[in-house]
């Protein structure tokens, strides 16, 4: 074994009761998919950064909804419709509580990508004159600037490029330091009185680096810019209170945090959501319709046109309930220990390059670790690891500019979650240590 169990568990004691191997073993029993073999080896699932596995309570909640309360929400007075609406809105309340938001501040979307596009298209519609006087604050034009960062997922990059192109605004970005962290000195020069939007990720989906949200929010506020947080890699892994963070908007996805696919959420401060014009139109989001015009409901319903993702929302509510029961401080602590073991282990292997901050940099990271194996393409690395039962992610992880900065076209990424163990880390490191020999790389 390349990493001992004691090494993976070495961490300072906290006020909460940390997770341990025995409890994680009990948690794993809630995830039947993990109890299988792949290519004759026990499955080691280290791809939760892409999509997490689901505990039984999540898909049972969806099934129970279909078995007992399936009906359209907000549309009927019969018993099933009322029950479906209650469960739908109860899930909204659960997710809102989980991220420190009000119920009216959570808009259901298909995923985080849709949530981020919702903001961009709403601002675009406001620029075109929609929304009336209340939406004037969201208008953009020549002379205005939109700022993102050099480590964004494409979903928090391309919508802002397109919004700039549609409105005549200028798109700019905060570069990275040589250590692959945000260059905050450059940020203070880039974010100016012309900046209208500052969009940034809480945790890099590639590097696992945790950014200084407080500093970025303060920078945006100092110039009156709206702040947009990509919380896809923080909501599943860190305690999160969006109101306390002070961001104006945030996006996250259910499937990355034990929930179903096809469901995500947009957080927005209530007064902003109520002033933003919608960009999807149809039933369930209106107050009055004539043949000449329509008037729209307040948020969140004004952004939820058509039949909603009802069962998925119910499953999402069950997922955050599961995470709350485990305790997000404990989840973050456990993953930090696993991530540190992966960083140290990979950094010690000959011919393996750890991507991002150095192992001894002290930069805060989650349990997501990218690396490159000298002389072997990441896709070959991934296939070899799969032959050993180890599931990881390969490619540019929808962050091509970041990989270009790192000097690679693609990488291999291992990402841990609450159901992973020190033994999983050992399996990864043992497999990676054999990659170069298998491919005959000296």
Automatic annotation (TrEMBL):
<dbReference type="GO" id="GO:0031071">
    <property type="term" value="F:cysteine desulfurase activity"/>
</dbReference>
<dbReference type="InterPro" id="IPR000192">
    <property type="entry name" value="Aminotrans_V_dom"/>
</dbReference>
<dbReference type="InterPro" id="IPR020578">
    <property type="entry name" value="Aminotrans_V_PyrdxlP_BS"/>
</dbReference>
<dbReference type="InterPro" id="IPR010970">
    <property type="entry name" value="Cys_dSase_SufS"/>
</dbReference>
<protein>
    <recommendedName>
        <fullName>Cysteine desulfurase</fullName>
        <ecNumber>2.8.1.7</ecNumber>
    </recommendedName>
</protein>
<dbReference type="GO" id="GO:0006534">
    <property type="term" value="P:cysteine metabolic process"/>
</dbReference>
<dbReference type="InterPro" id="IPR015424">
    <property type="entry name" value="PyrdxlP-dep_Trfase"/>
</dbReference>
<dbReference type="Pfam" id="PF00266">
    <property type="entry name" value="Aminotran_5"/>
</dbReference>
<comment type="function">
    <text>Catalyzes the removal of elemental sulfur and selenium atoms from L-cysteine, L-cystine, L-selenocysteine, and L-selenocystine to produce L-alanine.</text>
</comment>
<feature type="domain" description="Aminotransferase class V">
    <location>
        <begin position="44"/>
        <end position="428"/>
    </location>
</feature>
<dbReference type="GO" id="GO:0030170">
    <property type="term" value="F:pyridoxal phosphate binding"/>
</dbReference>
<keyword id="KW-0808">Transferase</keyword>
<dbReference type="InterPro" id="IPR015421">
    <property type="entry name" value="PyrdxlP-dep_Trfase_major"/>
</dbReference>
<keyword id="KW-0663">Pyridoxal phosphate</keyword>
<dbReference type="InterPro" id="IPR015422">
    <property type="entry name" value="PyrdxlP-dep_Trfase_small"/>
</dbReference>
<comment type="similarity">
    <text>Belongs to the class-V pyridoxal-phosphate-dependent aminotransferase family. Csd subfamily.</text>
</comment>
């Amino acid at each position: 074994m390349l990493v001992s169990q004691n090494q993976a568990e070495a961490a300072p004691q906290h006020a909460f009761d940390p997770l341990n191997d025995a409890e994680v073993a009990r948690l794993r029993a809630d995830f039947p998919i993990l109890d299988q073999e792949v290519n004759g080896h026990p499955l080691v699932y280290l791809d939760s950064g892409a999509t997490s596995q689901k505990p039984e309570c999540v898909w049972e909640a969806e099934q129970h909804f279909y078995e007992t309360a399936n009906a359209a929400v907000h549309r009927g007075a019969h018993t099933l419709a009322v029950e479906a609406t209650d469960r739908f809105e109860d899930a909204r309340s659960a997710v809102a509580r989980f991220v420190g938001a009000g119920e009216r501040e959570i808009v259901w979307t298909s995923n985080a990508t849709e949530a981020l596009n919702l903001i961009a298209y709403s601002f675009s519609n406001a620029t075109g004159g929609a929304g009336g006087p209340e939406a004037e604050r969201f208008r953009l034009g020549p002379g205005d600037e939109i700022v993102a960062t050099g480590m964004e997922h494409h979903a928090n990059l391309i919508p802002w490029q397109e919004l700039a192109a549609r409105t005549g605004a200028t798109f700019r970005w905060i570069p990275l330091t040589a250590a692959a962290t945000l260059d905050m000195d450059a940020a203070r020069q880039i974010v100016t009185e012309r900046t209208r939007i500052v969009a940034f990720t809480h945790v890099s989906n590639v590097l696992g680096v945790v950014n200084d949200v407080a500093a970025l929010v303060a920078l945006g506020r100092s110039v009156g810019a709206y702040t947009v947080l990509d919380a896809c890699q923080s909501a599943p892994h860190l305690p999160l209170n969006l109101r306390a963070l002070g961001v104006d908007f945030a996006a996250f996805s259910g499937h990355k945090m034990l929930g179903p696919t096809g469901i995500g959420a947009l957080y927005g401060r209530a007064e902003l959501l109520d002033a933003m014009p919608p960009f999807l139109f149809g039933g369930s989001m209106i107050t009055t319709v004539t043949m000449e015009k329509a008037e729209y409901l307040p948020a969140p319903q004004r952004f939820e046109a058509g039949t909603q993702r009802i069962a998925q929302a119910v499953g999402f509510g069950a997922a955050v309930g599961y995470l709350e029961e485990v305790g997000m401080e404990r989840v973050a602590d456990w993953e930090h220990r696993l991530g540190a073991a992966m960083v140290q282990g990979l950094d010690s292997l000959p011919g393996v390059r750890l991507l991002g901050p150095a192992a001894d940099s002290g930069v805060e990271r989650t349990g997501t670790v990218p690396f490159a194996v000298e002389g072997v393409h990441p896709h070959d690395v991934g296939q070899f690891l799969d032959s050993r039962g180890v599931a990881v992610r390969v490619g540019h992880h929808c962050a091509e500019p970041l990989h270009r900065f790192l000097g690679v076209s693609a990488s291999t990424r291992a990402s841990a979650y609450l159901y992973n163990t020190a033994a999983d880390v050992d399996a990864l490191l043992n497999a990676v240590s054999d990659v170069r020999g298998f491919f005959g790389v000296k």
